[in-house]
Amino acid sequence: MIDGILLIDKPAEMTSFGVVARVRRVLSEQQHKKVKVGHTGTLDPFATGLMIIVVGKECKNAEKYSKLDKVYEATIRLGQTSTTGDPEGEIIHVSDSVPTRDDVQRVLDRFTGEITQKPPIYSAIKIGGQRAYKLARKGEEFVMPLRQVTIYSLELIDYTYPEIKVRAHVSSGTYIRTLAEDIGATLETGAYCNQLRRIKVAGWSVNDAQQLVELGITD
Predict the structure, then answer these.
(1) pLDDT digit string (tens) for 4-19?
(2) CA-to-CA distance for 21 and 9, rounded, in angstroms?
(3) Predicted model pTM
(4) Which of 44, 96, 102, 109 is the catalytic position?
């Protein structure tokens, strides 16, 4: 394969750039020349699931794929917050309050439709030409711009306190970490995204994606 896309099921504890680098290395070895490889939207290191990898001449169309709607399955942990909105940050106890299932459903319903989000400071968004997460790690102060996103559906899969499991069909640019935090704030319990898996990008499904080991990638 020289030009086109690859569907990859990203493992946890690996960056999106790490996935791209490994795929580039293997394809370049197979072709005996350097192959251009890129991704079409980052997944956080703790997250798993579908990545559309563009190869060769298809790299010029990367933005087309990045603007597509996505579906995620997420586990939201109540009662605590995280400095990064995920398990990798400092976890802070907030509340022992236990919302009812009806309380949870009402709040999920409130976040369905077009909403305003403030993306997390630990994100790849560029602020003044620099990635926000790099500025945050330096301890620099800056303002994250608000953005309008659309939550087409937010389905409650399971609720066993302290964990809410949801399936979210969202527009491009939606941060599930932020959605989890906003849900926790509305419930007045605090929350962060404990697990995250991207299962669809437009019509592509993670069920059709390859594991890295299938490409001969074991590190």
Answers:
(1) 999 999 999 999 999 9
(2) 15
(3) 0.91
(4) 44
